Amino acid sequence: xxxxxxxxxxxxxxxxxxxxxxxxxxxxxxxxxxxxxxxxxxxxxxxxxxxxxxxxxxxxxxxxxxxxxxxxxxxxxxxxxxxxxxxxxxxxxxxxxxxxxxxxxxxxxxxxxxxxxxxxxxxxxxxxxxxxxxxxxxxxxxxxxxxxxxxxxxxxxxxxxxxxxxxxxxxxxxxxxxxxxxxxxxxxxxxxxxxxxxxxxxxxxxxxxxxxxxxxxxxxxxxxxxxxxxxxxxxxxxxxxxxxxxxxxxxxxxxxxxxxxxxxxxxxxxxxxxxxxxxxxxxxxxxxxxxxxxxxxxxxxxxxxxxxxxxxxxxxxxxxxxxxxxxxxxxxxxxxxxxxxxxxxxxxxxxxxxxxxxxxxxxxxxxxxxxxxxxxxxxxxxxxxxxxxxxxxxxxxxxxxxxxxxxxxxxxxxxxxxxxxxxxxxxxxxxxxxxxxxxxxxxxxxxxxxxxxxxxxxxxxxxxxxxxxxxxxxxxxxxxxxxxxxxxxxxxxxxxxxxxxxxxxxxxxxxxxxxxxxxxxxxxxxxxxxxxxxxxxxxxxxxxxxxxxxxxxxxxxxxxxxxxxxxxxxxxxxxxxxxxxxxxxxxxxxxxxxxxxxxxxxxxxxxxxxxxxxxxxxxxxxxxxxxxxxxxxxxxxxxx
Length: 640
Fold this sequence. Notes:
This protein is globular. Helix content is 36%, strand content 25%. A six-stranded mixed β-sheet has the order 3-2-1-4-9-10. Strands 11, 12, 13, 16, 23 and 25 form a six-stranded mixed β-sheet that branches. Strands 28-27-26-30-29 form a five-stranded antiparallel β-sheet, covered by helices on one side. The protein is built from 21 helices and 30 strands. The model has no long low-confidence stretch (mean pLDDT 82). Among the domains are: 81-191; 544-636, no CATH class. α16 packs across α17 (453-476). The protein is α/β, with parallel strands linked by helices.
């Protein structure tokens, strides 16, 4: 008997699961806390909880992770030199530190507009080569002719030996600047992805597992590990993609909406006939508009570990994630007593970082370049949880709560606080951690509210369910402003949204929210078995999907001779007639899809390829089109 293993390294938990290849049945699963900054420790802990008898027979391991997304959001990527070729409009706030704009580029027919200024390229490379770990290149209309990008790539490798990422290698969509951004972010991630993937390879080898390694992309498809190393940018949002694929597998539904409640956020997406809807303009991450094909989703910064804080007798949830009190009581012995005996801040002093349930602890990360006030505050925070209120009583100094934000952003300290997970522990609907700490925290918060701690937790639970409903309907009704949808959902009037397709819930204790959600929405709400590790399921059951686009254009040369140009991932080709170009395009598209599938380790016999063709004509039916766009979609399953 053969098995496959899925691993999802999320923001709070690292989940692992084993599936039987013959029928897709889940045989075993485990959750472990994600470890920072080294994710491998959490992965080891997660795998350690699986049954050894299955591990020995695992022949394929597939991984999904938030590593790429978090690296971009936290601006922790490796330094990169960006070269833009052509006449660019550079945004006023250009986030790339090392970049140059040089002469060159092509037009929409792939004809050179201006010779490439290689001297300017060489001067820039010599200037920054000792400060960067890789280079990214994007040339104007390189999707029609990548000659300038390839020439620069060859020259940089001759001069430095460093990795070089070209825009046309990652996207064939229009938008030279956005392709440059995509190449830039990809180059930032290559060393990080390499370290992560190689670490997993070593862990698999250490356990004596003879298994192939795959990775889930952010469009819900799996990719061979060699391509994952070359294009780590495509793993951004692979976590939400995993939840979508996992929800479909666990529920047996090809068409459904999916709500994934994680520790940090709640993600909403949808499958139709087994395929997710993709963002036509590309994924946006950390303020960067990329050309990466990712699933369309609605995300809110409210999850199981979002910070619950009170002010002016109002409950606030998020947007920041904290360690739940119930988890902290297990991780840090003695914390429960600290929580119970802590000094209570006055009502007028309450804000996000000054709460009776808010504590801080060092992460163990290396300290560098702190200001004097930051250093003073950091010195007061140790390896046991400490509150800002305690620090004030010890020092009699009013230290700015904003200093805490700075230390948190630098990953030097992390926060502990009351969360929706704690609320569920108080209500007895989830008991994986120390419920006593959750109850103690709720009783502290009730002092600032005109309600008892049980009702407080019920309100928190309802607020989380309402947030899920608002973002689900905002996703489905994308042309209607979210504030209008929110008015209807939050209203107590006699109206209710109705979903025509099932809604599948994935993540931790999502079953606790089903009744509240049913009161808000008229929907068939499903919580499948193993929903708590749905992302890990998605990582291992993802299909291989490859999209190839080929464009055929009828045009004329300078001598007014008819030309037929064909643009594909392999570059520009010229043909004497449209039928000849069309026949070549149909064969090439299928060939490129199959080459990708087999290279990624997918079963050649299981690959299905569909072709869609759109023509643009200026005259009546039957005439040769002036432009044809062929889109090839191949779908296959990993072979074991």
